[in-house]
Amino acid sequence: xxxxxxxxxxxxxxxxxxxxxxxxxxxxxxxxxxxxxxxxxxxxxxxxxxxxxxxxxxxxxxxxxxxxxxxxxxxxxxxxxxxxxxxxxxxxxxxxxxxxxxxxxxxxxxxxxxxxxxxxxxxxxxxxxxxxxxxxxxxxxxxxxxxxxxxxxxxxxxxxxxxxxxxxxxxxxxxxxxxxxxxxxxxxxxxxxxxxxxxxxxxxxxxxxxxxxxxxxxxxxxxxxxxxxxxxxxxxxxxxxxxxxxxxxxxxxxxxxxxxxxxxxxxxxxxxxxxxxxxxxxxxxxxxxxxxxxxxxxxxxxxxxx
Amino acid sequence: xxxxxxxxxxxxxxxxxxxxxxxxxxxxxxxxxxxxxxxxxxxxxxxxxxxxxxxxxxxxxxxxxxxxxxxxxxxxxxxxxxxxxxxxxxxxxxxxxxxxxxxxxxxxxxxxxxxxxxxxxxxxxxxxxxxxxxxxxxxxxxxxxxxxxxxxxxxxxxxxxxxxxxxxxxxxxxxxxxxxxxxxxxxxxxxxxxxxxxxxxxxxxxxxxxxxxxxxxxxxxxxxxxxxxxxxxxxxxxxxxxxxxxxxxxxxxxxxxxxxxxxxxxxxxxxxxxxxxxxxxxxxxxxxxxxxxxxxxxxxxxxxxxxxxxxxxxxxxxxxxxxxxxxxxxxx
Lengths: 306, 332
Hints:
A: 2 domains; B: alpha/beta; eight-stranded mixed beta sheet
């Protein structure tokens, strides 16, 4: 087990370091932050002063070493735009984003998996078609459009919910619903397809032939075997819980990390962009690690080795 | 004489094959007017090439797929007349053994859990007692009870098939359908499993329906054989007499295609060409397009199963073929 953790830690560190290096270099080749921050009409002197202030006049390897040195001490620098500590910006916006994305994800699992199971069991029935039609719609309409439709229905027409902002829990309802619908659509489709594949396995026919009741077949035979691909898929979806809400946050003016990220990229706020990408990377690494640990519980090939 | 254990009457299963959007589906008959009878303790082999509908027949018998037409009686009770309780009883008294034992076992459950599950869900035994019986059953199929806590992936192919057989027999069924049960196994393991099936049959009150394409294996397992072609039974009879004197050109071709160990025996049967094409049959004998002996009558009148020297054969010219082909050890 210690070997397992150690190898994972080394790998996670390698991923983090290479991401940091890659992002750092690419950002410095993709446009001049002094020009973007100060505007194209700023005097050359003002731009030079800006570069000296943020250390952008040094060579890239030098800048990277300085960055690393600070980052290791937990100092990710300050925002070019308003001088706020990058660390503060991130720690303030992450909870906002996770409030929307995690609750939406939980709702999506609670809706999507049962819907997929019912659709798979009652395959080709009216309920299957209804579930799948809803899922295709939810999946194929862009999230920002769903958001706008929700705003139109609930804020403009019915006037029961606020259209944008992030001050109260009522502001969270529409963003959560939008994000949940999208994820529930993906989850239900995948759950249905996975379960149908499992139900066609010979051991299901054998169980039916032995007179095992249908409920037992689903619970004891089909679902445990559908769980592994399902967890893989949920893991992939979960990696977007931090960065995937960009559109939703923008539509509803929800000041989460996604909206902040879009702003920072647009303004060339390098320190903020770098740190946020690192946070996204850490998050993805953590999700993947969780999925791998779950595998060990779900897969008898791994389970029985312990 | 008492009623047969299993009887099918005019059993037909048609599948619609969609050829295109809005196009009228093409009807494929996987089983067509099949009349079979199986007595208690009888072992019936069903042979035919892939696509002949033999697996569908197995699934129909076990009620895993509903027939399009016709009736199935088990212990005198029509499938159609079974209540939920009746189906439960039927499931207890019948069993299925499938081709690939790895996919026939649930990868998430231990061997012990899978074998004892039937006893538990039908409330035949407590958990402890059902585990004990499962262990005893494992012993009967030649596996150690230490296997109880193993998972399927931790066993060899032959061991897995023994587990599948143990699971099939734990409820003490009267009828077991084997669907290509040994086809996926190595030849040496095949022989062991075939020997096991013979032993089990001798010890128990069991009837077999043994579905296979392997004519060499089936001879060692069954008493009677039914040869299927395109969903129809074309010849049926005692295994020994059919092998000695096959009367249907298709049976003759199948038997002739089995390589002989004796180099002096030459194949005198003209080989059949082409493949099964269920689309082509319109009136007449379904085997006609591939039959080297087809005459004009075969194109107009479909032959029905009729008695020919103790066998039942669906061929107009059944009496004309000599006792021969290699299995009969006669050289031209």
